[in-house]
Amino acid sequence: MHATFPPGSSGTLRVADGSEGFISDPRRRVGAAEQPLAGDETGFALDQCGGGCEVSYAFALREAAQQLRDAEAAEQFGEALVAPSSSWLLGIPGQHGYSLEVHTAAPSVFLSAFPALDPSRPGDAVASPASTIFAPFAGLGAWRARALRVSDAEISVGVAGDTYGTGDDEIARWLEQTWTPLADYYAGLAQLHPLILVVPGDSRIHGVTLGNGGSSVLLRVGSDVTLAEALHSWVPTHEFIHVLFPSVAPRLPWIEEGLATYVEPIVRARAGRVSVEQFWRDLVRGLPKGLPQRGDHGLDNTRTWGRTYWGGALYWLLVDVRLRERTNNGRSVQDALRAILHAGGNVSVDWPIERILSVADSATQGSDFRNTYDQMAAAPWAPDLKRLFADLGVSVKGDRVSFNDRARLAGVRASITTSPKG
User: Fold this and answer.
1) Could you give the 3-state DSSP secondary structure of residue 72?
2) Same domain, 133 and 179
3) Residues 222, 314: one domain?
4) Residue 224 phi/psi, 5° resolution?
5) How many C-beta neighbours within 10 Å does residue 253 have?
6) Is the predicted pLDDT of residue 422 greater than 60, yes or no?
7) Whole-structure pTM value
8) Residue 45, C-beta contacts closer than 8 angstroms, at least 6 positions apart
9) How far apart are CA 338 and CA 323, in angstroms?
10) Which of 89, 217, 347, 416 could cross-link to 211 by cystine, CB 3.0-4.6 Å?
11) Residue 370: pLDDT above 60?
12) Are residues 214 and 258 in the same domain?
């Protein structure tokens, strides 16, 4: 690794926690003079670099992947490696922006979620507007790469291994058909360039999303997963919704996870991949898990699984119902999400909650997002779910779901899973 730092650079060079032990022979060059770069458990001191300097070091990426076995740090899949650049690229915390050039010997490739400096040569050099200390996934080695075009988005796909129940063409078709209803829901994908890495998994489909300067998703796919099963899995849609919303984690994970929990089945229901009955059955059964329990301090301050996922989903449902009721189905959460995405709000950037609420309320011409946030964020407030579902005209007995079209908010309930006209 060779890094060039501009004049005025100073501070402590670091990689992500846990990757420090795989660095060797760190050296600093200022002018013609080169010397070892001193370091300790906190990192390497970049001093005497006022006029600019160069740093070189080696990073044992394969060894890191074999020992760490965690894709969010480093993991190996045959001859393909997954490792965010924050694992192997020394950087100064708080220093934003860098360009990165990676040279590989064929047939190895470098797959990055960062935008290319030269779009005509996407693998040569990329740039990140964000800090090196946290980064999206990157792939190096024996990846089978291709590009998908969905709406206005260019989606880079890398597939590792050959233990899948489907071929690469079917995997690409599955991903394209998963993104397509999202493009419809969001009125386009805001010219995003997400990176999707597909790797072998133990069973079914599991996923994780990383942002900060770029958008990336890692999907673990079991060998017994068929194309039909993949198309009906909730996991990819859940992860892709994370891509389409600004990052607020780890500060407020509930608003991200709650959004994906609520909107994912709506998107799939409109695409005919989950029934409307299943959508409401899951909400009736799941939302009680998100209600505040003893010792709760509101969604912002309570990090339990139930409050994060189902408490967050409750927030989005309540806002959606209130919006639709106030505007006679003229405005909805969908309008707010479209506005946020097309204002540049996606997982590659951090947005404060105030900006999210402001853009959402502006797009829906009200204060429903702010008012509901103030009601639920800092205090353990809970609605009467029994009354809410009665108003919506939803009844669940065992596995049977029935709808009352004469209920006060029956029109709101029907509109949630129906694509708006026009």
Assistant:
1) coil
2) yes
3) no
4) -100, 5
5) 16
6) no
7) 0.95
8) 12, 13, 37, 38, 39
9) 15
10) 347
11) yes
12) no
25, part of any domain: no
How do residues 132-141 score in pLDDT, each as one tens digit?
A: 788 999 999 9
In the block, which residue shows the tokens 């024996």?
Answer: 142
Q: What is the DSSP string of 78-123?
A: TTEEE--HHHHS-B-TT-EEEEEE----TT-EEEESSPBSSTTSTT
Residue 228 and residue 321 in one domain: no
Query: Which of the residue ranges 201-205, 210-214, 322-326, 333-337 would you say has the lowest mean pLDDT?
Result: 201-205
Long-range contacts of 100-104 (CB under 8 A, 24+ apart): 100/125, 100/126, 100/127, 100/128, 101/125, 101/126, 102/140, 104/140
Q: What integer best gives the mean pLDDT of the chain?
A: 94
- Same domain membership, residue 263 and residue 217: no
- Are 164 and 171 in contact by the 8 Å Cβ rule? The answer is yes
Rounded Cα distance, 216 and 315, in Å: 26
pLDDT at 296 > cutoff 80: yes
pLDDT value, residue 369 = 98
Q: Mark whether 190 and 258 lie in a shared domain.
A: no
Burial (CB < 10 A; 0-12, 13-18, 19+), residue 269, is buried
Domain end position, chosen among 205, 233, 261: 233
Range(s) of the domain holding residue 318: 253-416
Task: Identify whether 163 is part of a domain.
Answer: yes
Beta carbons of 41 and 4 less than 8 angstroms apart: no
C-alpha span between 51 and 28 (Å, rounded): 13
Cis bond before residue 6 (omega within 30° of 0): no
Q: What is the pLDDT of residues 156-187, one digit of tens each?
A: 999 999 889 889 999 999 999 999 999 999 99
Question: Does residue 8 belong to any structural domain of this protein?
Answer: no
Please tell me the predicted confidence (pLDDT) of residue 249: 67
